[in-house]
Each structure stands twice: as C-alpha cells, then as structure tokens.
User: What shape does this take?
Amino acid sequence: MDFISQGILEAFRLLLSGDSQTYSAVAATVKVSSMSMAVSLAIGIPAGFVLGYTDFPGKKQVRVTVDTMLALPTVFIGLLVYAFVSSRGPLGDLGLLFTLKGIAIGQTILALPIVTALCASAVEQMDRQLRVTLISLGADRLRLLKTSLWEVRHGILAAGLTAYGRVMTEVGISMMVGGNIKWQTRTVTTAIALETSKGQFAMGFALGLVLIMIALTVNVSVSFLRRK
Amino acid sequence: MDLLTERIRTGVAIIAFAAMLCLPGATVQAGGKVLLLATTTSTDNTGLLDYLAPRFTGDTGIELRWTAVGTGKALKLGQNCDVDVLLVHAPAAEKKYVAAGYGVDRRRVMYNDFVIIGPGRDPAGIKGRSVAEALPAIRRAGAVFVSRGDNSGTHKKELSLWSGAGADIPDKEPWYIQTGQGMLATINIAAERRGYTLTDRGTYIKYSANHGGNPPLQILVEGDSCLRNQYSVMLVNPERCPGVKSALARAFADWLVSPRAQKLIADFRLMGKQLFVPNAR
Amino acid sequence: MPLYQADNLSHDYNHKPVLQIGQMEIPAGSITGLIGPNGSGKSTLLRLLAFVEEPRRGEIRFDGHPARPFDPRVRQVTLLPQTPYLLKRSVFQNVAYGLVIRGRRMDLQSRVWEALEMVGLAPGEFAARRWDQLSGGEAQRVALAARLALRPRVLLLDEPISSVDAASAQLIKEASLQARKQWDTTLVIASHDWLWLNEVCDDIRHLFRGHLLGSGPVTLVFGPWKPAGDGGVEKILPDGQRLKAAGRPDDPETAVAVLDPHQLTLSSRASLVSPDLSRLEGTLIQIGIEKNSDRLVATVVAGNIRFAVNIGPEDRPGLDSVVPGATVWLGYDPRQVKWY
Assistant: This one.
C-alpha cells in the first residue's frame, strides 16, 4: 500500500508546486459546486421553510417526493440531464453538454432535495414558542421570517454542508454531463476516476486528499459562522 | 456592539462565498476553433492524445477537446450529435454505424494489439499457442477467465475471439467472471483470482511497470493476426447533425492520416515501448 | 372605555374548539387574573389578547378599534409565554431585540440595563452571557426583561412563576407590579398561584373548557352524575351526602357542574339555611375579606370538595361566631347549577 504514502507526498507537491492541471480541476470543482450550491440554497432554503413551517393541501405528498429524491443516484441524474442537454434533447440548443453549467444543473438536482428536506426538518423542529415570542415582541412578517431563519441557522448550515459534501464528491453527473474534458470540465473527482483507471493510484489518492483539503477549508470557514 | 460584529461576520462570509464563485478557471483559449472528439479510454489513458493534441493545434490552429469514454458510449455520443468526430476501435460496430448513417468517411489510423495474459504456471497450458487453440483450452480446463463485460472495444474483441474460436460465449459459466470495470481494474481482478484475461498491450505495459517489470500475470498469447486492434477515425454525419463542426472534424481526420501524424504515432513511446502502429492507407 | 373588548370570541385547533367567550372586557391599567385547570384555554386566550393569533370567529377590539396580528397598534401589547423562547444570541441581544426592530437605538443600552435591573439580573454580569448559559429562572427573567424593555402598554403573563425557583418567582412578581406602577401597564396574569392573584388582581376570571365562568373562584364538581328521582341528577359525595343539580347533562360521566360563589349561602346551623335551598354539611377552612369590597370570601370543604362562597354584608351577622374549623351549612339552589 505504498501508494498511500506516495499519494500524501504527491498531494503536497501538486498544491505547493502550483500544478496547473490540479488547479484547473480544483477551480472547476469549486466553480461548479458553488454554482449548484448557490442555486440550491436560494431555492431550497425558502422551499424548506415553506415545507416545514406552513400547512397546505398536498404537503405530505410533496414531503414524500422530496425525501425520495434524496436517494437519486448521481449516475441516474447524469443520464437525465444528458437526455435534456444532448444536441438531440429538448435543451440541446443551449449548448450545455460538456460545460460546467451543465454539470451544475445536475448537481442542483442532487443538492436541492437535500437542502429542502433538511431545512424543512430544521424548521419543523423549531420551538413553537419562537413565533409567539417574535410576534409579541413586535416583529412584522418579514422580520419574523428573517429571525426564524437565523434561529435555525445551525440546521440550515448543516443542510448546506451535507449538500455541499454530496455535490463536491459526486462523480456520476460530472462524468456523464461534463465528459471529463481536460482544462474544461475535468473536476477533482473525474480526475481521480481517470487517474485510477490509468493505474496512477498515488495520483488519484493525492487528488482525493486535495478534495478533502477543499472540504476542510469550507468547513473551517463555516465553523467560524457556527460558533455564534 | 454585538450587533456590529454579527454584521461584520455575516459580511465576511458572504464576500468569501462570492469570491469562490468568481474564482477564475484555468482554461485554454484557442480563438474559438474548438473541436470535440469522443474517443476510447485507451487513447487517453496511454497519454497518446496529450501527446498529439498540442501538435495538432500547432499545425492547424484548432483546439482539440476530447471526452474519453467506452467505445459504446463514444458511438452513442456521435449518434446524438453531441461530438464532432470519433476515434474508436470496434471495426464491426463501426461498419454498422456508418451503414446506419450515423458516421461518415471512416478511415484507418493505427492499430495496437491485444494479448492474452495469465498466471505464470498457466493451468490451461496456452502459452505460445494460437487464439483458436487457447480459448477452447481454457474452457476445457475450466480455468478462471476474467472479462471486461462492459461492452467496450476490448470486450467486443473478446466476444469476437470466442466466436472465432468456434465456441459459445461462456456467459453463465462459473469460471467466467465479468467485471464491468476498466481494463486495469479487470487485470487486477484477474491477478487476484489467478485467471486469464484479454488486454490491450498498452495497458499491460503500464500494469507491468506498476509492478516494477515483474507482474504476477504474463503475456501467454500474442502476435495472432486476429488480435490486432484497429483504430479508425470517423466524422459524425453532418447531414444528420447540422450542428457539428464537420470542416474542423475533417481537418482532424486528414491530419491523423497524414504522413506527419503517422510518424508521430509511430514515435510515441510508453515506458520506452512502441504502442501503436500507424497503418493509414 | 375598556382597553379590551371581546365579542363572541371562539377559537379551535384542528376543528377542536378550545375557546368560546361571549363577552369580555378588560379595563386599562387593571390587573386581571386568569385561573382554571390545565387545558382550560388560558394560554389560548392570552395569545388572542396578545394578537399573536387571530380568533377563528369573533373580534377583539383594542383601544376601541378592531385589531389583528401585525397591526401597528398592537405592538404595545406583549406576551410572556409559559415556556419562553430565548433567541440564540446574548442576553443583551435578547432583551434589545424588540427595541432594535423598532429602530430604537439611541437609548438602547440604558433601556436594556433598566429592564435587566428590574428583573434582578446585574447587567454587567448578565448582558454578555449566551442564551444557553442561564438557569431556568434566569432565562424566564431575561424573557420578562425583553418585554419590560419595551415599556409595554399591556403585559400578558402566562404562568410566569410556575416553573421557576422561589427567588425568581418573587423577582418576577415584583417586576410585573413595578411595570404597572411606572408605566401604568395593564397586566393579565394566568397563574395557578391563587394566593398571589387574590393579592394583586383587581379582577379574577375563571376559565373552564374554554368558557369564561364569571368572576371569582367558582366551584367545579366533576362527574359522574346519577339520575335522581326529581328529573335532575345527583352526585354522591364520599361522605354520603348528595349534591343535587337540575337538568340533564349531555354526558353524565364527564359533565362538570359549576357553582357560582355568589349563589351559595353559608350558615352556622342547618335550620338557618333558607328552606328554598338544598343543604350540604361541611367544614369551614378559611374566611377572608374580598379585595376592594365589603364582602367576605370563604372556603368550605364538604365531602372532599372545596366550595368557594361569597358572602354579602347582609349575611354577615349570623356568622360572627364562626371560625375556621367549625361545622357549617352550605345552601344552594340545584336550578342555579350550570353545566359544562
């Protein structure tokens, strides 16, 4: 298992020497996951809030649907998105195949149910007295929403991090929709898959460590928020 | 006081997030002339395309981008008009493909060859024999044979070898293991099960190098004419797919069969060994 | 003009009625007590009065105007719920929250300091604490301070001392009264602490199963009830006496009879009970003067049930020699018994 120790050394060499292929893959990963997370959070937090806070006809069915979508395999999402963005697909004219935007669409489908479901759970577990307290302290509707979201920030943060973890580590969507094109859509995970298939286990391991370091950076900056 | 620090912290977090979004990607620009190639993992994994692509761009000013997938998927991408040109190695499938009107102007580029590898003690006794003798021998001995089982070019080749040797495909035999994985993973499985497998020579050279030149599996059958692995270049049919860049695709195909590219292919070395033999007509 | 006027108020949760109030008024500057068993609708009534929820039917007029949640007018009303919620922030930010969202930043610190001092929390020590570094009693007091910082016109307290230590309870009592003294705040207090309510309230309302049972400490007699010969029903008390009631309750097993203390009489001898009334023999437990009136309030135990009796000045002479512990006779009219 000497490739593990080689991989650790290689990971540092790649990062410190500014290896352009590695940084290209890192940039692709960060860009595409940021795009998909931005959209997922922008839609998923309000949707989760509505799902957890309000009652409406069909809510149970929506909840079951969202919970089921948590189990979508990434390769399946990849195929689904491919069917739409392929030249012969309904969205073929947009030219999204083999682009980061195309991957981001798939990753949004992956992350959105996670953000929505976990936010809904966090909001559901919110103390019932919070609403009473805020209104009776004079909060208007907008303030009520803002403060309530702020009160469940730890739950929302956890939802975001869970989704981010899934998005950053998925390989099925990136491979299928992105095509693992060098300098373009090669993310850290598709690079790992490639290096592994080439038998470059140490290199694959090193890239895995790079991915973990990105995740660590994100989590450390988030824990800075969580401390409050 | 506390409110202020709260605002500052939130602000910092938002700016950090925004900065991540704007992070520039390291992209190579080539004046907009971009050609998209679907090819098989072997050409990419061996480094051949990394070696050829900059020389092609230098000669023609066209940027080459490629997605390396299994032959089946590469053909499918062309059928769906998602790529401009194909470099694949499954002649029988390619002929049907051209006949169906999906591809046009198919031209031979080069070949490498397949070898049958197996454990040194060779339980089926196939060393040095022809493919037509070796495969029935493995079947008779019930020795483990590991197949890609993934509809890749190599897998298709293996299936054609079984039928060429006058044998049924041993799909459900207990000694016939289908991995559904890449070539290297399949070799590793064969090594662990002490079985035989069919591999392209390039992957075997890499595998051998990974084991410091002394791998557990050795070449037992090679050089048989039916083991030849022919690569061809093919344009995606522009009549079916008006969006494809057929002019750039044709430039790439022309370049690949040109004497200059043929010489480059012949000069390409992996671990000091020649991998591909150019044979454009 | 009363501060609150409620008309035909009703409310339900999941189609289960929880509150049904015909008429209710609360005068400005008063202290009103709410008593009643758990689930009687006290908290619901307080939430409606706080304009945190809207009644399903009926209307609450505040200051002469129909009012609804989020009206600017009702920002002068604030509620301390039974289990208060502290925001996940510092004590300072909790107490300041209401002022901050009103855009009051000028005297923010002095107002927060003042409120913390009112509830007996040293500002220097507590302002910077986190929400999760407080004991139960301290948390309750921080929650109260958050309301007091607003100098509210109405302060609604839902069981404010039921789950806190004795010292906190005392501080909470004092702070609420101080609010009324300093800012003429109208207080509505739901509590089990009958002695406290009796001591401070101008008026006490009894709630039972969502109904307002009139003022003062009514007597509740729970079923089961058995049919009596005269067409009414009766309950056999543990000592063998029979409590009679007219009418047929819907469900004799669970029906509750309500006896108004003003409808009961107290006599030192059976022969003194008016012949029009039914009698019960019991023991006088306590007797005292009703706040702000010339009437007496007495508690009598008969057959394990505590009866509250309100005695007018005209009936006092016959009771001069009666002291707690004495055997006394209650007179009641079975036709005056109400059912819930």
